[in-house]
Amino acid sequence: xxxxxxxxxxxxxxxxxxxxxxxxxxxxxxxxxxxxxxxxxxxxxxxxxxxxxxxxxxxxxxxxxxxxxxxxxxxxxxxxxxxxxxxxxxxxxxx
Length: 95
Fold this sequence. Notes:
Elements: H1 3-12, H2 17-27, H3 31-37, H4 39-47, E1 57-61, E2 69-73, E3 79-83, E4 89-93
Antiparallel strand pairs: 1-4, 2-3
Helix pairs in contact: 2-3
């Protein structure tokens, strides 16, 4: 088994087995769906980069599609239209 496969299996191990199988079937359909399901590997690799340029942090999202945008009311009582699904998002330095 390849190192990438081992990382994918280890990441999904604590999840519900039936849901993981659905995820794997979806990931096998095409490259787009594979990369949506494996974006955590990109984040893990990004963590290892030592000489990132200093800059402000921005959100990046590995699962970005139209349904993950929407309006919401923030703690400051203002309504925003922005990314609303952060389960596949991470703060990284802007380049």
